[in-house]
Amino acid sequence: MTETVVSTAKQQSAVAARPEERRVTPAQPKAKRSGGRLRALDGLRLVAALMVALYHYGGRGGEITAAWGTSPKTQFPVLHSWFSYGCLGVQVFFVISGFVICMSGWGRPLRSFFASRASRLLPAYWAAVLLVTFVFALPTVAYKALSPSDVLVNLTMLQMPLGVDRVLGVCWTLWAEVRFYALFALCIVLPGASRRRVILFCAGWTLAAAITQSSKDALLNVILMPEYAPFFIGGVGLYLVHRNRKDAYAWGIVAVNFLIGQHYAVRDLWNASDPNAFAHRTSLGITLIVAFGFVAVAAIALGWLDWANWRWLTVAGALTYPFYLVHEHLGWVVVRTLHRSLHIPSYATFLLTIASMLLLAWLLNRYIENWLTPKLRAALSKPLA
Hints:
The protein is mostly helical. It contains 17 helices and no strands. Helix 7 (89-105) packs across helix 13 (229-243), helix 7 (89-105) packs parallel to helix 15 (283-301) and helix 11 (195-215) packs antiparallel against helix 12.
């Protein structure tokens, strides 16, 4: 007993001798933590990808018209107008990305962040570029493959700033994602994530993007992406809400960027005045779908969808990225084969094409991503000599 008292006294004396350990820090709001993977977010990813697929197969003209043999207006006389709103799945993706990148980059060193992002994006992307090139090069396929030189440049994911033709039509969104990753890495991950730094980043980017839009400066436009920034920033703000639902600054970031984001979406996609438009979207419809993206991610951030915890949603989330990459161009081939060669009805062709692209995405995930992603992450995570 005496030894215990002496030991305790020594410990108290040692603590007293170190004033920095006695310093009282202000109480901080505890970060709101999920009990596990946010599976509802995986489900929302798939919803966004399917929205884009609806648009590419039945909500626009172009190459898909050649695949069907007639305009999708003829194939889907009622639904084509609804399908035309599917392009807004991209804006939903960007909100999700803002949330996820802030969540995955918080407390992570720059090397780990880079390794995580590169290993997530590149394996399926490389496979999709090579697969589409191979299929388009087949003599029985009516679509022209790019030159070997252009395909090799596409493997870098820098074909757009270099002015090289794209193998994958959807890769323009990846170029926007890469720029967002770079901004977030330099401003948040490199110095170390904190609530204050993230708020300043969001506020600064919002203001700088608005100034860029006004100045019409081409370089700043490429870097700051005024038309897409509100969706990424809004997603980042929603992650702050996920950490602390009473954070007034976070809610302010979300509200301001929703208002700006819907403006850009309406400006770019509202086409009521164009008599030659494939389908006439309404400004209200566009705004409502943008609102859906923000509200859905907000519901996940607040934990309102924690009940959606089914394991199949994790599988759905894993299939989303490879499905997104391959569905457009290879979908043309499948639609043409099923509808024009095998004379399968339009709606059955539509569903079978989506199912076949999901199956292909599963194969890419299982045999490419599950094999190459951990190897690439491990290689990139090694410290520099």
